[in-house]
Amino acid sequence: MSNVQATHYSVIVVGGGQAGLSVSHFLQRANIDHLVLEKHTLTHTWRTQRWDTFCLVTPNWQCALPGHPYSGADPHGFMKKDEIIAYLDGFIGKVNAPVLEDAAVTRVRRGADGRYIVASTRGEFTADRIVVASGGYHTPIVPRMAERLPVQIAQVQSSDYRNADALPPGAVLVVGSGQSGAQIAEDLHLAGRKVHLAVGEAPRCARFYRGRDVVDWLADMRYYDMPVTDHPLREGVRDNTNHYVTGRDGGRDIDLRRFALEGMELFGRLEDFRDGKLRFAPNLRANLDDADDTYNRINASIDGFIAKHGMDAPPAARYEPLWQPDGERIELDLEASGIGSVVWCIGFTPDFGWLDAPVFNGRGHPAHLRGVTAVPGLYFIGLPWLHTWGSGRFSGVARDAQYVVDAICAERANAPDRVSIACA
C-alpha cells in the first residue's frame, strides 16, 4: 500500500513479519479496516538476518501460515534460506495486506478518548486497537567485556554473520551454543575454520529417533498443542533457550562432543577478558551433560509413547558421550590462540520502549493471556510461547492470529459506539 489516505483505522498492526501478516489475513476475513506498519520491508528479518547456509530446523510440513500451507515436494525436508523467502513471498501475495513500509513506529500512546495515537516516521495515525507484531528479539546482546577486546579482533553478532569467508583470517571464537551459536559453530567448522566455542546451558535434542523425525513424534504426542498454562514451567518456559539441532543436509543431530573430537575447542561459559586472556566458567562438563540429559529425556518420552500405544518402531537407544573434557580450561590467551574474530550468539532483548502502556514486567516483557493484555484494545502476537511452542513460528502463529482477531471482534461487539464495521 503506497498511498495511505486514511489516518484513522479500527486496527493498526505494528510489524510486517509472518505474525503481522497473519493478523491481517484474519482481519480481512472479519472485514475490519486496518493498516500494517512495517519498519523496513515485509518479512525483513528473514531476508537480512540469516547466514548463507541457514535452513529451517523444523520440517517443512510445519510451515502452516494461514491460507498458505507448505505445498512443496519435500514435506519432511528443511527449506533453505532462498526457499523460505520464496514461501514468504507467496504468503505476502496471498494476504495482500494494507501495509505501509519504511514506517518505523516511534511512539504509541492512548489518548483521553480511548483511541491510540501512533507516531511513525511516515506520519501520525490513530486506531481503536493496536496489535504489536514486532516480535521479541530486538536488541542483540553483547556483553560490556566486548569493549575491552583488541581493536584488531573483528566482532559480529549472530544476526550479522553470513559465512566463514566473510570473517578475517584466523581462528574464530563463537560465544553461545543455542540454536544459532551451535549452527554457526558447525558452519565455521565445516568450512575448515578453527573454532573455539564457549558452551552455554542450551539443551539439545535428536533430529531422528526410532525411525522418524523427533518433531513428528512430538506432534503425535500433542506437545505442540500444549498451552503455556499447562507447561510444567508455566510462563518460565518463555525464558528457555531453544534446543540445538539442524536441518542442514537433510537434518542431523548437532553433537558438540563430536566436534571436539574433530578439533573444535570447547570451553564453559565466557565470563571475562582481562590481561590478554579470555576467562571461562568451569562448567563445560556440566553444560554438556545437561544437554545430553535433555536429549535422552525427550527420547525416553517418545519410548513411553510408543510403548503405551503398542507401536512398531526401531529399538530404543540411549546417547552415550563420545568425548569428555579433560579437566576444565578456564583461561585462553587471546593472542596465542590466533583468534581473529568473535561471533556473539547470546540472544536478544526485547525493546518496546516506543509503547506507552502499563503492561510490562521488570524485564521488559508484556503481561498477557494468549496475546490479550489488561489494557483495552492492546494485543501482542508472535512472541515465544505466547500460547504454545509454535507461537513464534510458522507452525503456530495462525492459531494465535485467529484468537487475537476473535478477541478484537468480541471487544468491538461490546463497544458498539466505537465500531464502524461489524465482524463477519
TrEMBL record:
Keyword Cell wall biogenesis/degradation among record annotations: no
Stored InterPro entries: Auxin_biosynth/cation_transpt, CHP04046_FMN-dependent, FAD/NAD-bd_sf
Residue ranges the record marks as coiled coil: none
Gene3D superfamilies associated with the record: FAD/NAD(P)-binding domain
Keywords: Oxidoreductase
GO MF entry, a single one: flavin adenine dinucleotide binding
Source organism, top-level taxon: Bacteria
Name of the protein this chain belongs to: FAD dependent oxidoreductase
Natural source organism: Caballeronia pedi
